[in-house]
Write a structure and sequence with these properties.
The protein has 17 helices and 15 strands. By secondary structure, the chain is of the alpha/beta class. It has two domains: 19-46 and 289-397, Alpha-Beta Complex (Aspartate Aminotransferase, domain 1), CATH 3.90.1150.10; 53-287, Type I PLP-dependent aspartate aminotransferase-like (Major domain) (Aspartate Aminotransferase, domain 2, 3-Layer(aba) Sandwich), CATH 3.40.640.10. A seven-stranded mixed β-sheet has the order 5-11-10-9-8-6-7, with helices on both faces. A three-stranded antiparallel β-sheet has the order 1-2-3, with no helix packed on it. Strand 1 (23-24) and strand 2 (32-33) form a beta hairpin. The chain is globular and about 55 Å long. The N and C termini lie far apart (53 Å).
Length: 398
């Protein structure tokens, strides 16, 4: 058993101790954190919908009409017509027969994997997948094997003949911002009688002309997408700006999850008013493509500025733009320096990311302005211990 006091001391000594920050007021690009207004580049509110007036009003109206709590699980008496309307809209949005609401993305991933897999099955997972996919595989009691990040050749060698193979991957990897090679994964799954499950938490709403996520961005849309990726997971607390998650796929898949997904069966349903607010946010995300256009403009502006400074960024087309510090102490120093200059970018440390890859995870929202990006770049240019500048100078001297 873990020794609580000793473990807390160890975390402090290693620079891995985490503390919550206190937010006052709504989520925004200039939130009030611990009593200070900061320019934030660390939220997942990619489309700026978390405090949209129409979404707030929809929540108010929903609560006035339907109350606050749902009062029960979906299978008792908690499945409300507001939930049904949102599930129907989500299914149509991503081009699937049906969708099923879950209370969180973590619960969705645990529920799906546990419902589909068990002893004797094999789950193949990208090594950089979100923790919820890893935990879902472990809870299923299937054999979990993790392939090197985006390595199709290694994955192919790990597949076994016959049924029982489930391939699980993030669509957009949350700490690196890069995309899974979904078309290649789909082709391999098809030729290997394997099921492919994609968690597109950071792609839904952001990528693709219609905001349908990584699959649309990579050219998989409509009926072709459902055939290629039978199991699609999305969250509602990121680009959509509210809370909850969904799984989309065939009618049979959804029916099976209703019968077998423990994290769906044994939990209270989302508040109906929240489903109503989410439906409004989804409509805005579809009707205002300029939000995605603004987001892409900001990403391009930042990447161009970062390139001119010599910052080494990953090849990410998404709002997630990690700046690798390497060691924990450097990442913490960089984060503190930015905060001293009224900019909030939290340091991401192990075990969230692998050892030696601590970083600043810089994220953008459509609510940011070009001047905000320029201010961030100007401040990054003054960071102490600019390792990327040293590396560039060393290369020039060779």
């Amino acid at each position: 058993m873990i020794q609580i006091a000793a473990e807390l001391d160890r975390l402090r000594d290693a620079g891995l101790y985490r503390q919550r920050r206190l937010l006052a007021g709504p989520q925004a690009v200039r939130p009030r954190i611990d009593g200070r207004e900061l320019l934030a580049f660390c939220s997942n509110d990619y489309l700026g919908l978390a405090a949209h007036p129409a979404v707030i009003e929809a929540l108010r109206e929903g609560a006035a009409r339907d109350g606050v709590g749902s009062g029960a699980s979906h299978l008792i008496s908690g499945h409300h017509e507001a939930h049904e309307a949102l599930e129907t809209a989500l299914a149509a949005f991503v081009g699937r027969e049906r969708a099923l609401l879950f209370s969180t993305g973590y619960m969705a991933n645990l529920g799906v994997i546990q419902a589909l897999c068990g002893r004797g099955d094999q789950i193949l997972a990208d090594r950089l997948n979100h923790a919820s996919l890893v935990d879902g595989a472990r809870l299923s009691q299937a054999r979990l094997r993790r392939y090197p990040h985006a390595d199709i050749d290694r994955l192919q060698g790990m597949l076994i003949n016959g049924n029982g193979n489930l391939i699980v991957t993030d669509g957009v990897f949350s700490m690196d911002g890069d995309l899974a090679p979904i078309p290649a994964l789909a082709s391999l799954a098809s030729h290997s009688d394997a099921l492919l499950m994609v968690d597109d938490a950071h792609g839904i709403g952001v990528l693709g002309a219609g905001g349908r996520g990584s699959l649309e961005h990579l050219g998989l849309d409509g009926p072709e997408a459902q055939a290629a990726v039978p199991i699609l997971v999305g969250t509602l607390g990121k680009a959509i700006g509210t809370f909850g998650a969904f799984v989309a796929g065939s009618a049979e898949l959804v029916e099976l999850l209703i019968q077998r997904a423990r994290s769906y069966i044994y939990t209270t349903a989302l508040p109906p008013a929240l489903a109503t607010a989410t439906l409004k946010a989804l409509q805005i995300a579809q009707q205002e493509p300029e939000r995605r256009e603004q987001l892409q403009h900001l990403i391009s502006r930042f990447r161009a500025g970062a390139y001119s400074l010599g910052l080494a960024l990953a090849d990410s087309p998404t709002p997630i733009q990690p700046l690798i510090a390497g060691d924990v102490d450097t990442a913490l120093r960089w984060s503190r320096y930015l905060e001293d200059n009224d900019i909030l970018v939290t340091a991401i440390r192990p075990p969230t990311v692998p050892q030696g890859s601590a970083r600043l995870r810089i994220t953008f929202s459509a609510a940011h302005q070009a001047t905000d990006v320029d201010r961030l770049l100007e401040t990054l240019a003054r960071l102490p211990e600019q390792q990327w500048v040293k590396e560039r100078q060393a290369k020039q001297q060779r």
